[in-house]
C-alpha cells in the first residue's frame, strides 16, 4: 500500500532570506525531469520584471502597484536568491500547524 500524497498550496506568508544555495545554481534546476520547465519559468519571471507595467508586476507578485519597483528587483534576482526548505519558507496557518519540519 502506498502512502497518500498531500499537496499544500503555497502560503502568502513567507519568511525572508534563507541559507541554501541559490536555486539557479542547484542540482534541482539542472538534474531533474522538470529542469527545462523550471528554467523557462525563471526566464519568464525575469523577463516580466522588464516587460510588465506596475499593475502587471503587482498582479504577478500579489502586491500593490506602488510596491512594484521593489518586486522588479526581486524578480530579476530570483535565480540568485538564497533558498530555504518549504517548512521554513512558508509561514501561513496551514504550513505552521502542519508539522512539516
Question: Short description, anyone?
Answer:
This protein is mainly alpha-helical and 101 residues long. It is built from 6 helices and no strands.
Helix and strand topology:
Blueprint: H1 27-30, H2 35-51, H3 54-61, H4 68-76, H5 86-89, H6 93-97
Helix pairs in contact: 2-4, 3-4
Descriptive account of the structure:
With 101 residues, the chain is an all-alpha fold. It has 6 helices and no strands. It has helices at residues 27-30, 35-51, 54-61, 68-76, 86-89, 93-97. The radius of gyration is 15 Å and the shape is globular.
Please give a handful of descriptors for the protein shown.
mainly alpha, 0% strand, globular, 101 residues
The number of distinct helices, counting runs of at least 4 residues, comes to 6
The succession of helices and strands, N to C, reads: HHHHHH
Task: State the major sheet.
Answer: none
| Uncertain parts | none
Structural class, from helix and strand content? Answer: mainly alpha
- Average per-residue pLDDT, rounded, comes to 85
Oligomer: single chain
Radius of gyration (Å):
15 Å
- The end-to-end span amounts to 24 Å
Q: What is the helix fraction of residues, given as a range?
A: 40-55%
Gross morphology is globular
Strand composition percent: under 5%
Task: Write down how many β-strands occur, each being a DSSP E stretch of 2 or more residues.
Answer: 0
